[in-house]
Amino acid sequence: METEVRIPAGAAKLDGNLSVPADACGMVLFVHGSGSSRHSPRNRFVAQTLNDAGLATLLFDLLTPEEEAVDMRLRFDIGLLAIRLGFATDWILQEPAARNLRVGYFGASTGGGAALLTAAERPESVGAIVSRGGRPDLAGASLPAVHAPTLLIVGGADDAVIEMNREAMARMQCEVKLELIPGATHLFEEPGALEQVAHLASDWFRRHLPAAS
């Protein structure tokens, strides 16, 4: 069952949707640079696949509606997105329904960079990361400090992003794997492409996010 939540983030309140299956084995926070994670059809599809696999999910808007309306550039502000993700992480760790679950991040686009930046600052809190068509290079100098096992998923036809991911991967010291979806472009709109993303993400999180004792 999905529950609507409001997450305090400093002066802002972030709207979200929390789903916690029975006997969940981990909690995955979705991080999307556009600020529209909660409504993204692609993210909602992946979240449903994770729920079906026994993983809890939190889809939330990194930006408020007012922020989106005033300044579209904020969706590219990696520092701000990482701060907001930090607030959401602190909130979910105290949420009774998810308190005993280890946290993972599913980042898309610039959200991939924000997820890695936040994970570097919270090595004890974040157990795994999956980036879909992400920009891990935007985490910059924080990349070597990431401890969480990281899966980078990129469309096989998304040449520029493949190179960015390979360069970031070379700077990382944790367990990291690059998966290319053959024929897929940046938004994974090709038949079957998003299904592959969802199943790869599900397997990665189930491997690295066992329920905390």
What does this structure look like?
With 213 residues, this protein is α/β, with parallel strands linked by helices. It has a single domain, classed as Rossmann fold. Helices cover 36% and strands 24% of the residues. The chain has six helices and eight strands, in the order βββαβααβαββαβα. It has helices at residues 41-52, 65-70, 78-94, 110-121, 159-171, 193-208; strands at 2-9, 12-19, 27-32, 56-60, 103-108, 126-132, 150-155, 176-181. Strands 1-2-4-3-5-6-7-8 form an eight-stranded mixed β-sheet, with helices on both faces. Helix 1 (41-52) packs across helix 6 (193-208) and helix 3 crosses helix 4 (110-121). It is globular, with a radius of gyration of 15 Å. The two termini are 24 Å apart.
* Count of helix runs: 6
H/E topology pattern = EEEHEHHEHEEHEH
- Which stretches of 5+ consecutive residues score pLDDT under 50? none
The count of DSSP E runs of length 2 or more, i.e. the number of strands, is 8
Number of domains: 1
Secondary-structure-derived class: alpha/beta
Our estimate of the beta-strand percent is 15-25%
What is Rg?
15 Å
Helical content (DSSP H or I, runs of 4+): 25-40%
The main β sheet shows up as: 8 strands, mixed
